[in-house]
Design goal:
The chain starts with a strand and ends with a strand. The longest helix is centred in the C-terminal third of the chain and has 14 residues. It has one domain: 2-Layer Sandwich (lpxc deacetylase, domain 1). The protein contains 6 helices and 21 strands. By secondary structure, the protein is of the alpha+beta class. Strand 6 and strand 7 form a beta hairpin.
Length: 297
Amino acid sequence: IQLTGTGVHSGAPVSLTLHPAEADTGLRFLVTKRGRVISEIAAHVANVKNLTLCTVIGDGAGTTISTVEHLLAALRGLSIDNLYIEIDSKEVPIMDGSSAEFVDAIDRVGIRELSEPRKYIRVLKPVRVEENGCWGELEPHAGFRMDVEIDFATPVIGRQRLQYEMSPGVFRHELSRARTFGFMSDVEKLWKAGLALGADLTNTVAIGEGKVMNREGLRYPQEFVRHKMLDAVGDLALAGMPLLGAYRSYKGGHKLNSMVLQALFADASNWEYAQAPRARASRSPVQIVSETVVAAE
């Protein structure tokens, strides 16, 4: 699956190719330069390098990839566990600001179930972190449940809460099209910091003058909290395997999501590896169909 687009912070063009992988590969980024792989970076919380405005992972030699969360959300949301992600830039393309174009491309190609049983990280004990009035927690649960609440001073957003028992269908229909959002008042500050150079109304819900500035309006009721949940699904994909647990957050973000995973793995008694029956196999995109997606200008 080939996709092209623009980095939301760098403003640079990006080419991305998704390659099927065998069981136990996990989600792995292959960073290329002039057609040659220069770094392989596993999508794991141990490789997180920065959490300012987006999630950045990297290797030990200085190579980084930013804004990985929307792609990882699509993969985890569709229960894809094994994939090589070839990328020729330092940032995953923003596409339309959601996971929709990743999901649509994968749906057109299809998903191959592998014969090996699916492997999980099972949460055994409650884990909670708090910072500046915000908090996040993981608790034992038989499936994967998300409960996300946000609270913004602006009445355009206000206080929103959403709860779902996650499945590919729920992610596809309830979360995947929710776009990233930002405030017009912050744009100049971000530009001066060399950020948001690729952001515009085609990939961001902009809030200004007490309203949503995008002519088409919102895609969902409560699109803001839906996008925060989408982000959390992507950030929690950095567990390295699908989680069996219930996640809840209040006024969370990339940093808090990562802190919860770090707290989970800080104590080996908090979690264990689990394996599903063979009926719930590992999944990877099929190898027999190719698809090229170009982000709309």
